Amino acid sequence: MNIAKPNSYRSGPDERGHFGIFGGRFVAETLMPLILDLEKAYTAAKADPAFQAEMNGYLKNYVGRPSPLYFAERLTEHLGGAKIYLKREELNHTGSHKVNNVLGQIMLARRMGKKRIIAETGAGQHGVATATLCARFGLECVVYMGAVDVERQQPNVIRMEMLGAKVFPVQSGTRTLKDAMNEALRDWVTNVHNTFYCIGTVAGPHPYPTLVRDFQSIIGNETKTQMQEIEGRLPDSLVACIGGGSNAMGLFHPFLDDPSVEIFGVEAAGHGLTQLHAASIAGGRPGVLHGNRTYLLMNEDGQIQDAHSISAGLDYPGIGPEHSWLHEIGRVNYLSATDDEALAAFQLLSRLEGIIPALEPAHAIAKVMELAPKRPKDHLMVVNLSGRGDKDVPQVGDILRGKSK
Amino acid sequence: MTTRIDTRFAELKKAGRSAFVTYVMAGDPDLTTSLNIVKALPKAGADVIELGIPFTDPMADGPSIQAAGLRALKNGMTLKKTLELVRDFRKDDNVTPLVLMGYYNPIYIYGVDKFLADAKTAGVDGLIIVDLPPEEDDELCIPALKAGLNFIRLATPTTDDKRLPAVLANTSGFVYYVSIAGITGAAAADANAVGAAVARIKRHTKLPICVGFGIRTPEAARAIAEKADGSVVGTALVDALKNSLDAEGRATAKTVNAVAELTAALAQGVKGAKQAAE
């Protein structure tokens, strides 16, 4: 496709929330006034040093930032190529990168006087982060989660309940993340006056893709500083997994205008790209769902198709609109890893580094296993280790025991 | 340009009564039954027909309408077949206004220009696309108006006086006032609140105002008809259809009549209402 290169890859979206043809605000009229209010509140908060100072305080002392940039020596030796660094987002409070964004949105909700928070969640990491910050600030919390995901992510369901959140198993449609998002939107339409919808990824109607990206950009900003301290220069490549794509956008965004940095996003190829998968860019095309135009898995009639991934957090038929744009404009390379590749990477990282990753970043590790050996030894590769694997231990344990039988 | 919608509301105004607008899902539970239902609606007293375009992820609809869409899709309904249904309906009825209601993605994938041309040829009069607010008017609203189709917009309790002009700017045919902040099929708003909202919107537009969401009975339809230019019933009709299906979700001998009978009862409610003095 012939698209003019912008002066900066970081200036988007435009004032209507578009990244190229992607993004926008495709929602019911009931929600529009709320979305416009949110945009106004976010613009004001961004310019308010008190908001930034308060956030920075919680990021440091509650979330535990900065997260380390760790040189994975044994993984590097094993793969025999690039020097691999792990950005340790799994060490954040609640065990994933999700808390960065939720903290930002909850502080916005408080500024806007909202007392009731709703969220959707796939793997439960966003739900746990939301339940955690609602507990911290004394807010009512309702989390929508597909009934299938409630089954496969029990540890996180229990955590959310312990934190005082109400978890609603969604029985409609495919009973996964897509349907949880539909249900959350329905709740929001119904309870629009007192409710703040805390979206978990860089998708949804404008301004969500932007504000989630901004809150997550701390990942890339820290990485930049840390790599300068450790190696005295920028990394040569970045790798992150993509469902909606918030951990990836957070790592990528601060580096988009550094042309020497190669960037790789890894989608979930499930059983393989010709079968059931969740790779929207590799296997989808542009369409409109959940408030934005973006790459979606759908049939020839525009009906949304079921996604599949071993990882509940990547099991979504869409992707954030900014990723769609970065794909079309060619700034980021989008790859995919299958369920089996992710499982192999899950085991490799556990055994070599003593770090059990979540199944989501295991997809990124799977591609590192391909990319790193082809790079020279002075190549600096950063992988976003977006979450830890505690939640996946029962599921992966069942699979591995089943395989060994 | 005068459309079937404009003509129908002008006639109703002359007759001093409010419109009865029915909503059914195209292809629910199958194409043939659905066509027979749509054909039966005007005879049973529907003044305007809204025909749902099935979609897998209808974010602003309740469980009844979502299930109706999924029944239709399961039986092979598509946007192309929805337009065929309209074309078949028009063979016998060239006066009843017919509005397609749905979500944007199937239309976007069909191709906006091709869709508008095909819809116009098939005999569609207007569009209600739930997830296209005025902020996205360039997508479909402006091209639809150019193609001679009405673009009917939803106004809601959250649409305040400041926002109303933007919502009404490119609206034509009629304004659809959603009486509650919520999904289709939820509890009804009270008629007095609706009356106040209709009066508020009337200060901004000369278009007829139809009210929907939560109207299930002839009494409720009558109460709304006294306050507005039309009342819209959808979920109750979809539920009547669903209750007539067999255990496998297939149409039975009762299905068309179940919808027609409820339509007739609701239409009686509306026709018995006195229009509020303007």
From TrEMBL, chain A:
Chemical reaction(s) catalysed: (1S,2R)-1-C-(indol-3-yl)glycerol 3-phosphate + L-serine = D-glyceraldehyde 3-phosphate + L-tryptophan + H2O
Chaperone in keyword set: no
Entry keyword annotation includes Glycosyltransferase: no
Protein keywords: Amino-acid biosynthesis, Aromatic amino acid biosynthesis, Lyase, Pyridoxal phosphate, Tryptophan biosynthesis
Domain of life from the UniProt record: Bacteria
EC numbers: 4.2.1.20
Record PTM N6-(pyridoxal phosphate)lysine, positions in chain: K98
Top-level enzyme category: lyase
Gene Ontology cellular-component annotations: cytoplasm
GO molecular function: tryptophan synthase activity
Pathway as given in its UniProt record: Amino-acid biosynthesis; L-tryptophan biosynthesis; L-tryptophan from chorismate: step 5/5
Tryptophan synthase beta chain-like PALP domain location: 64-387
Cofactor: pyridoxal 5'-phosphate
One Pfam family, short name: PALP
Function: The beta subunit is responsible for the synthesis of L-tryptophan from indole and L-serine.
Assembly with partners or alone: Tetramer of two alpha and two beta chains.
Sequence similarity: Belongs to the TrpB family.
Protein name from the UniProt record: Tryptophan synthase beta chain
Species the sequence originates in: Bradyrhizobium arachidis
UniProtKB/TrEMBL annotation, chain B:
Gene3D superfamilies: Aldolase class I
Entry EC number(s): 4.2.1.20
Active site location: E50 (proton acceptor), D61 (proton acceptor)
Membrane-spanning residues: none
Pathway: Amino-acid biosynthesis; L-tryptophan biosynthesis; L-tryptophan from chorismate: step 5/5
Record has Amino-acid biosynthesis as a keyword: yes
The protein's enzyme class: lyase
Pfam families reported in the protein's UniProt record: Trp_syntA
Keyword entries, A-Z: Amino-acid biosynthesis, Aromatic amino acid biosynthesis, Lyase, Tryptophan biosynthesis
Membrane among keywords: no
CDD domains in alphabetical order: Tryptophan_synthase_alpha
Catalytic activity: (1S,2R)-1-C-(indol-3-yl)glycerol 3-phosphate + L-serine = D-glyceraldehyde 3-phosphate + L-tryptophan + H2O
InterPro entries xref list: Aldolase_TIM, RibuloseP-bd_barrel, Trp_synthase_alpha_AS, Trp_synthase_suA
GO annotation, cellular component aspect: cytosol
GO molecular function: tryptophan synthase activity
Family: Belongs to the TrpA family.
Quaternary structure (record): Tetramer of two alpha and two beta chains.
PANTHER family: TRYPTOPHAN SYNTHASE ALPHA CHAIN, CHLOROPLASTIC (PTHR43406:SF1), TRYPTOPHAN SYNTHASE, ALPHA CHAIN (PTHR43406)
NCBIfam families: trpA (TIGR00262)
Main function: The alpha subunit is responsible for the aldol cleavage of indoleglycerol phosphate to indole and glyceraldehyde 3-phosphate.
Protein name (database record): Tryptophan synthase alpha chain
Source organism: Bradyrhizobium arachidis
Gene: trpA
